[in-house]
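Q: Structure tokens for this one, please.
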Amino acid sequence: MNRAVAVILGSVAVAALAALWAGVPLDWTTWSDPQSVAHRILFELRLPRLVFVFLCGASLAAVGCCYQILFHNPLAEPYLLGVSSAATLGIAVAETLGGIAATSLLSQAIGLACAAVVTLALGALVLSQVGQQTERVALFGLGINFVLSSALFLFLSYQSQQLGGGSLRWLFGQIPWVSAEQTGRFSLGALAILAALLLGARSLDALSFGDGVAKTLGVNPTRARVLFLALTSTLVAWMVSFTGSIGFVGLVVPHFTRLAFHPSSSRSLLAIGLPLGGAFLLFSDALSRAVLPPMEFPIGVITTLIGGPLFLVLLWRR
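A: Here is the predicted structure, written as tokens:
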């Protein structure tokens, strides 16, 4: 336990320092002067972004952990299963055609509705495949992801013959420079859902053994599954409205957590995976800004370059 805590805290600290340091160099000798440029950049831009990115990474890791249990599939992840793409497409259409701000409640409700359709379809597929090969769920989700991603690309291309920053944000995932107010608003929603997932981890443990065992343990599998899918879909839609689709965090972090720490329960898996997911995305964000400053690469490209090979290895082993 002490080793796990030390590794987690060390990973978060290193990733946080890297995220603060990456990008255009600051004059650190004047950071404590409220009137200096370095102070304003640090406290008005980089620190709010650090908190925002950490919570995004923790959210993606939590959703990945839940999906792998709910769908009985180690390859389940919101990006691969098309949930992120569905929410992204809904929000992008609402913003472009309806003039609705991406971070507004109405836009997020549209994204949530689109994500809910995909998660319900996947949930129905899981129930119909009990006792059969669960790889079909991952393949079905991949098919949805390809179709929705292509529809998104086609839609954005129709709107603009030349791809701009906004298009890159929706297609590949990009961390915005959020204000302290935006970070606080996002944090409230994300922390509330993450807390609910941690509190309901006992039901996840029961579902991991199958619906029959869950019933004997006093857990209604249908009700629990619907509740978890509703919470995770809301969290994905809430995050996607800010960042677009960011892939493979929900795949990489749960597997690393299981291999490195061997958690004995879903609550332990979530408790360890959440900060590691935040650290992973912080490191990816630092890398996206440190390669060629002041240029900033889409963070989804960085996470895909890391997570894509892992997905192929896991698929090959199965």
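A few notes: The chain has a mean pLDDT of 84. The chain is about 75% helix and 0% strand.
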